[in-house]
Amino acid sequence: MEYKKLLGDQSPSDNKLVSRMRLHQSWWRAFVLCEDQGQHPMKKDQVIGSSILNGDEGFSNFLDDYAKRAVREALEDRGSGSKGMISEGRLFNNLLSSQPLCFNFFGRLKYNLPLATSVFKLYYPAIAKVTDIQFEFAPNAAQNGDNSAHDIAIEFTAVDGKRGLIGLECKYTEPFSPKEHRKESYEKLYRESDAFIASYDELTRTEYNQLFRNQLIVESAILNKSYDVAYSGLFCYEGDSNALSKGIAFQRMLKKGDERFHVISFNSLLTTLQQLNLDWETREWTMLLWVRYCATQLSDNLK
């Protein structure tokens, strides 16, 4: 049908999850944003339905002014040694990327810390007050010898007054890094920390290596006394069985893993938010998040 052409190009090499979510983001671009498809993120001579053109001009990859403000501030702050890498092409033009997703889900919470506190204390009961939310963050004193950074870092004051950190890895459809990273600095932190049950060899396998390296940022922050208490977690799409299973398996590799590490799905976070006493504008934002990232039934007829 003619309207299917508006979806733009798809990729025959996608796995089932990526194919479905690429189609959904193509639907969002075509029928919500009403924009033409943009450049393929990997093949510069091709276009793809899940990308837009010149997103850095209109910021159309972001759902509200809070996300846009957080993006601007994060980019301005790139010179800080505590900041990881941001790919501006992915950020502005790739609708399927987890990078803009982070700003859409957490940008508003960054500027409404009481709301952020109400949400995250339900997952991490040690929280008394969220004090800041940062993007692509690794504390200066917590660098573990590479460019690893938490996609989302939540700083908080604990109920006992201690200074705390939560580092979240965010996934949409991207796989975990397929590389097996091993360094002397990793093994040193592993041995100095009391967080792990699993062996170093098991934690550095490709299935868990990325989550392990993120956990090392947390552990080094404690060892270097940048923070008094620190936790970690995985934020991912509830339909991503691969990410969910790896997150649950990694949790079991940690001492008191159900306290140290949480797997939080998009659906879970939105449900938690919607059960709070929200003003209408904030509730609308939760609905837009659901439509954009979870409500694939809205694009089912285009398959």
What does this structure look like?
The strands form 2 sheets. Strands 3-4-5-6-7 form a 5-stranded mixed β-sheet, sandwiched between helices. The chain is globular, with a radius of gyration of 19 Å. It has 14 helices and 7 strands. The protein has helices spanning 2-5, 16-33, 55-58, 65-76, 88-93, 98-110, 113-120, 184-192, 200-203, 209-223, 241-251, 257-260, 266-274, 280-293; strands spanning 38-39, 47-48, 127-137, 150-158, 163-171, 229-236, 261-265. It has 303 residues and is α/β, with parallel strands linked by helices.
Measured between the Cα atoms of the first and last residue, the distance is: 11 Å
Helix content: 40-55%
Radius of gyration: 19 Å
Approximately how much beta-strand content do the residues carry? 15-25%
Q: Give the integer mean of the pLDDT values.
A: 92
Largest sheet: 5 strands, mixed
Describe the global form.
globular
Topology:
Layout: H1 2-5, H2 16-33, E1 38-39, E2 47-48, H3 55-58, H4 65-76, H5 88-93, H6 98-110, H7 113-120, E3 127-137, E4 150-158, E5 163-171, H8 184-192, H9 200-203, H10 209-223, E6 229-236, H11 241-251, H12 257-260, E7 261-265, H13 266-274, H14 280-293
Helix pairs in contact: 4-6, 8-10, 13-14
Task: Please provide a brief summary of the model.
This protein is of the alpha/beta class. It contains 14 helices and seven strands.
Key terms for this structure?
303 residues, alpha/beta, two-stranded antiparallel sheet
